[in-house]
Amino acid sequence: MTEEKFSRCISEILGGDMNGLKEIYIEYGKMIYSAALQICRSPQTAEDVTSEFFLKLKKAASVYREGIGHKKWLAASARNLAIDHLRRQKHEILMSVQAGDDESHPLSEVPDSTDIEGSVTSDMNAVRLLMTLGENEREVVNLKVYCGFTFSEIADLLKIPIGTAAWRYQSAIKKLRKLYGEVQI
Amino acid sequence: MNSRFEKDYINNIEVSAPDMDKLWDKIASSEPGDDNITPFITAAEECGCSEKNRKINVYRTIASAAAVFAAVFCITSAMGISKDTAKMDTAQDNLSGSEANIAANDRYDSFSEEAYDEAVNENSSEWVYVTECAQVRSYEQLNLSDTTDSELIGTFASEAPEEYFVEENVLLKTDLFIDCRIVSSTVRSDGVWYEAEIIHSVSLSGNNMEEETCYLTSRSPYALRKGREYLLPVCDDNGTLRIVFDNAPQIEIARDRTIICHNGWSSLCENSSYISYPQVYADDYFYDRMTITAECSLEKLFESWEALKG
């Protein structure tokens, strides 16, 4: 979505027209979901965060200023919201993991650990493999591969140097490709 | 970004995402909820700051480049340089802000080595990208490793094949990149054999070299110097490692991680600046096409390589 179109959508939202919000949702809904998923590691929580995000965007539209980069702003806002949500819901998530409710939290059985070799099984898909990495590496890979941000934008979003963003991505993708090759054999 | 993992990852996200139409119906019918939009406000402030800083850097670069253009114009007008040379000068119009700084201030400045050391110590087992570049005008001013080779002497000045360097062609033939330090070289009838200490290797398959040393062969007037570090595009020629395009100076890495390369490496030249470089032999095509750039530019080279090889 171009900056001009996004600004038009924002103007529509401020004018009470939901079409603007829906256009932004269609374009970026899955990006917001994927960004939330990397933080929350729970599809249900990520879905709740996505829902909350667009509900709040109706009011937050007035905060947006042209020139700051709308896609980066959306991703940064989603990240902030997911972190806030996770902090509020932390106790509830831990209880769900302990209950071993596979249907509602299919990824909860994947430990947030860098012990990759111990976590990999043959039925893991690419998303599950990503969850075996540390949070820092996971976020960078998602922002780069799915959201399509440059290293410079990722560095701004995560408040890290460009070199660090590139290094985390390189080392994570090397691990994942190697594991993914093993899983697919 | 064409690897199998990346494609499958995107597909998995698309497939495992919730029913977006149903989710929209839920959003559209829900009450606004609480008024706390702090995450959005914080994000706007953060994005605003980074955008402002980026614009300031762009303005500085434009102003610096304009100053250099003016200086070059005055010099070429005064000297009455021929058309061909003028064309060569205009080809060097990809000047960075560092070039103007050099023109204005003729002294060698090195970026903070403390920052580099800190990064290395933090991640001592990994390859750390450095985002700053030395600010120098000549090859001799760079922070290079010591070498016992006295000069950049060509070995087979007249036997190197005539070829034009095209980055795409080189990348397509490259099986892996080896970051290595030259330990020794032996001149034989079939070329020069280099023994190299491997610092890092990068391959698209993820199968990096586990050996600590390797042997490479080359027939080129551009000799690799003992003690110096290079990033070599290499192909496996029936078990023999060969440098893919050796009729040119290879990508060299200074001690402060500044990258030195010729401007045929378009992936590396976006934020580079030109330096003077010794002429190796009479028909040396590259000595006035040498540039320096920050190590983080290598990510673009690897991305180009991945995109081509698929």
Question: What profile does the largest beta sheet of chain B have?
Answer: 5 strands, mixed, barrel
Overall average residue pLDDT of chain B: 73
Assembly state of the chains shown: heterodimer
Q: How many distinct beta strands of chain B?
A: 9
> Using only CA atoms, what is the Rg of chain A?
18 Å
Please write the string of helix (H) and strand (E) elements of chain B.
Answer: HHHHHHHEEEEEEEEEH
Q: Greatest interface and its residue counts?
A: A-B, 62 and 55 residues
Shape of chain A: globular
Helix-residue proportion of chain B:
25-40%
Calculate the terminal CA-CA distance of chain A, rounded to whole Å: 39 Å
Description:
Chain A starts with a helix and ends with a helix. Chain A has nine helices and no strands. The longest helix of chain A has 30 residues, at 70-99. With 185 residues, chain A is mainly α. Helices cover 36% and strands 19% of the residues of chain B. Chain B has a five-stranded mixed barrel with strand order 1-2-3-5-4. In chain B, strand 4 (229-237) and strand 5 (240-243) form a beta hairpin. Chain B starts with a helix and ends with a helix. Mean pLDDT of chain B is 73; it is low at 57-61 and 81-126. The chains are: A mainly alpha (185), B alpha+beta (310). At the A-B interface, helix 2, helix 3, helix 4, helix 6 and helix 9 of A face helix 1, helix 2 and helix 3 of B.
